[in-house]
Amino acid sequence: MRARELLTEAKNPHIAHLEDLVFDSGYAGAIESLKLATGVRNMLAKGRGKRGKVTVKFDGAPAIFAGIDPADGRFFVGGKAAFSKNPKMIKKPSDLKKFYEGAPEDFVNKMAIAYTELKKLGIKDVLQGDLMFVKDMLEQRTINNENYIVFTPNTITYAVEADSDLAKEIQRAKFGIVFHTAYIGGETLNDAEKTFDIDISGLNKTSDVWYDDAEYKDLTGIASLTLEEDEHLRQEIIAAKARLTELGKAELEKIVNNSEFKKTIQIFINANVRAGQHIKDSAEFTKEFLQFHKERTLQDVGDLKSDLAKQKRHQKVEDKKSFIEHNQNSVYKLIDLYNHLNEIKLILINKLNTIDGMKTFIRSGNGFEVTNPEGFVALGHSGDATKLVNRMEFSQQNFNK
């Protein structure tokens, strides 16, 4: 499976939320989101149809790229700047000072350990992963009267039962990483083909590095959909398809291709996420969105010096209001489609979250509050990918971090 990038502005692009594909890619994005959701539904329903693949989004940091630079055949470790015009690739210890002088000491130390330890794995191409821990990040904690080894690479704290084999592996290691993406071929790293379908079975084994891939593993079978859950999901998919058919390609494209509408509505949705609010009734949402746009556009109008500039700013509000009023029915249907896609996503996440993997917490003062994993990435048969994240939970935590 090869990953066809939905966004092309960078080699390692942002992966869109399932429900946001309709804004990012219009009608094709809506079709794609329904295909990916159906693939995950089939994966969670035993023995049915074409099945999608799901990877778990680990909340590690920083992102680490490691492997063989196709340009010269040398091993390297780097961050996202490995893809820059003048690539920052650590190929010898002195490169740390060359590329990262003045960078935070913690980041430089982690990159130094990554260079030393990942070299031992014998990576053939280039792998991307999220750093989960280095030795001094590991702590022994008692949570709800249970003893754990815990580490907090970013927002989420991961906890492993202290007497488990996994905890023993982690405690022996100097470095921990979860790989989720590979880059294959090409004359340079920027020419390499990106795939989420990775195979790490051929990597060297060493107790110094704990590593895993991000593939969703349900070893217990408890994440299979019940008949009732499957029917609920089926009805939501039917409703979303019906809305998409009612809206039609031409009408949908007219709405999402309005750059001012597209930009402002995504800002509004993120503002709701920060406030911990789901989209309400689609008609009420449209009304609140228009008010939000008006207030946002006019918020600094008093600072404008000329009457002409003020007039233009007020005209911008009127243009937006006129656009929504003339397309009110289509905007309503688009928001309703978005709501159905969001509900589909939440049903899938709630089921995926039942897997019994590493326990996840959020640090709260001197204690820990239980939380779900960051989320998941759904992969289609043609390599398309989308995020399945409960934005009212993890995204809100990240926004308000």
Question: Overview of this structure, please?
Answer:
It is built from 11 helices and 14 strands. It folds into 2 domains: 18-57 and 221-399, no CATH class; 63-213, no CATH class. The strands form 3 sheets. Strands 2, 3, 4, 8, 9 and 10 form a 6-stranded mixed β-sheet that branches. Strands 5-6-7-11-12 form a 5-stranded antiparallel β-sheet, with helices on one face. The chain is an alpha+beta fold and 401 residues long.
Short recap of the structure:
The protein is α+β, with helices and mostly antiparallel strands. 42% of the residues lie in helices and 19% in strands. The protein has 2 domains: 18-57 and 221-399, no CATH class; 63-213, no CATH class.
Shape, per Cα inertia axes: globular
Q: Mean pLDDT, as a whole number?
A: 88
**Count of domains:** 2
Helix content: 40-55%
Strand content of the residues, in percent?
15-25%
Q: Helix count?
A: 11
The Cα radius of gyration reads 23 Å
Order of helices and strands: HEEEHHEEEEHEEEHHHHHHEEEEH
Structural class by helix and strand composition? alpha+beta
Major sheet: 6 strands, mixed
Tally of extended strands? 14
* Measured distance between first and last alpha carbons: 36 Å
Q: Which residue ranges are poorly predicted, with pLDDT under 50 across at least 5 consecutive positions?
A: 1-13
